[in-house]
Specification:
Blueprint: H1 2-13, E1 21-29, E2 32-37, E3 42-47, E4 58-63, E5 68-73, E6 81-86, E7 89-96, E8 99-104, E9 109-114, E10 117-118, H2 119-131, E11 136-139, E12 142-145, H3 150-166
Antiparallel strand pairs: 1-2, 1-5, 2-3, 4-7, 5-6, 7-8, 8-9, 9-10, 11-12
Helix pairs in contact: 2-3
Length: 170
């Protein structure tokens, strides 16, 4: 009876139902992994995306080497395997045109950038500028306070615009 249902689904819906396989990750290479199945068979070029396009956009969840994953094939062929579930994550990368976000589990750091800026670099630059602010003003009556000089105001406004180009303010 089970075989009849599988054949019926294949005919009516045009799908080839198959079950996921458990595998151990033995290597990672950008958008693919190498895996070892329970029977010891090792396979390379297992996709981390559902389709095999060269599109550089989308979400990539990279598993840790030595971790377990679930893999499936859209065609039923071992050469068409792709990862459908990751237990231990090494990194998560999302790219949409010039907007990029990466979560690195090893370094415990997050990178956020677009064509006009990098959140980490902008933050460092902002801190440097604040540290170097000179708000003590010498007057004939002695030391006094003053506003940030126009050159530093310009730099701080450029930093503000850089943050606004990356971070949503509402």
């Amino acid at each position: 009876m089970g075989k009849d249902v599988k054949e019926l689904l294949k005919t009516i819906v045009g799908v080839n139902p198959n079950l996921p396989l458990t595998a151990k990750v033995i290597g990672v290479n950008d958008k693919t992994v190498s895996i070892e199945l329970a029977n010891g068979l090792q396979l390379s070029d297992v996709r981390l995306t559902a389709t095999g396009t060269d599109d550089q956009e989308g979400l990539i969840i990279e598993p840790k080497i030595g971790s377990d994953v679930l893999v499936m094939s859209q065609t039923g062929k071992l050469s068409e395997l792709f990862v459908i579930k990751v237990n231990d994550i090494n990194s998560i990368r999302y790219v949409n045109e010039d907007f990029k976000v990466e979560i690195d589990a090893n370094q415990k750091k997050v990178a956020v950038k677009n064509a006009t800026g990098n959140l980490g670099a902008l933050t460092a630059q902002l801190i440097d500028e604040i540290v170097n602010l000179n708000i003590v003003v010498s007057t004939t009556a002695g030391p006094g306070t003053g506003s940030v000089n126009p050159a530093q105001q310009t730099i701080l406004n450029q930093l503000k615009n850089g943050f606004n180009s990356i971070l949503k303010n509402d």
